[in-house]
């Protein structure tokens, strides 16, 4: 079997979900005993990134680059069926798109992975989104992979896709699990304190991004409410880039205007921040899957997660759930996870068991099953 794979979106941004998906999936295929042939189609402007991933893959994966910019090709393919994808890759049996590039083929089936429908479920946050390319890809796709049951339901609901045309293939954590002893945590906390320029003993950690659905202002507000019932030394560490839409809030956070709340910026390794935390707060408004939940489980930290979209599906019984729109719900969970030691230990144990149910090898094996069934 020869698979033409939409490799370009994997290379554009190393911190994106598309990178996590593409790099993780290909690493999973490398672990499988039986190999299919993959033709990785991409723009040669990203040759350095492409070669870096290819170094960890066997001969079953072959780079197929073009000097033409993908956006030029995509614009051409909106109005023309030439040149067909085979012109760039050679013959193949199936095309797998992981974003929205849906080129014409010589009557070969096209499979589309759908990651989430956030722009349709939370339109107030994405008023300037251009959805025509994705919508065109949905219309052209012959079959779909959804990364969660929740995403499948959203796809079928929004686009009236027959559920028989959608297979669910879960994702996995993109970092290796770690678990520190108390002595190791003490050493790591000293190192983390040096990185942010102030001493930290106990802390919650939350991941931020320019996307407002991460709900950072609401989480900060909840922490401020909870502080009267929390240890005075407990801090909230915000990791990542700050939300774009809440510019005033982001500037105040950057300036250190909130008591006991620290913006740590972008970090090179998430594991020590997670493994040393009192809890990981993931009160997102919407997730297509929610890989950070698994990352936290693998680092032995209890998780507070939203009770909506895919998050209960990913975390199962291993998280403490909140209503992400309700500040009091998030605040109460923060207090409870600090005060109830027995519950914390139970959540840590459940999380470590839960994360073992997911791996990129399993993701690759299930994806291969979809290829075979589809063909």
Lay out the secondary structure.
Layout: E1 2-6, H1 8-12, H2 17-31, E2 37-43, H3 47-54, E3 61-66, H4 70-77, H5 86-89, E4 94-97, E5 110-114, H6 118-121, H7 132-140, E6 143-146, H8 149-159, E7 166-168, H9 182-196, E8 203-208, H10 216-226, E9 235-240, H11 247-254, E10 261-265, H12 271-275, E11 279-282, H13 291-298, E12 303-306, H14 311-315, E13 319-322, H15 327-339, H16 341-355, H17 360-374
Parallel strand pairs: 1-2, 1-4, 2-3, 4-5, 5-6, 6-7, 8-9, 8-11, 9-10, 11-12, 12-13
How does this structure look, described?
The protein has 375 residues and is α/β, with parallel strands linked by helices. The protein folds into 2 domains: 2-172 and 359-374, Glycogen Phosphorylase B (Rossmann fold, 3-Layer(aba) Sandwich); 182-355, Glycogen Phosphorylase B (Rossmann fold, 3-Layer(aba) Sandwich). Helix content is 42%, strand content 17%. The chain has helices spanning 8-12, 17-31, 47-54, 70-77, 86-89, 118-121, 132-140, 149-159, 182-196, 216-226, 247-254, 271-275, 291-298, 311-315, 327-339, 341-355, 360-374, and strands spanning 2-6, 37-43, 61-66, 94-97, 110-114, 143-146, 166-168, 203-208, 235-240, 261-265, 279-282, 303-306, 319-322. The strands form 2 sheets. Strands 3-2-1-4-5-6-7 form a 7-stranded parallel sheet, sandwiched between helices. Helix 10 links the parallel strand 8 and strand 9. Helix 2 (17-31) packs across helix 17 (360-374), helix 10 packs across helix 15 and helix 13 crosses helix 16. The longest helix is centred in the first third of the chain and has 15 residues, at 17-31.
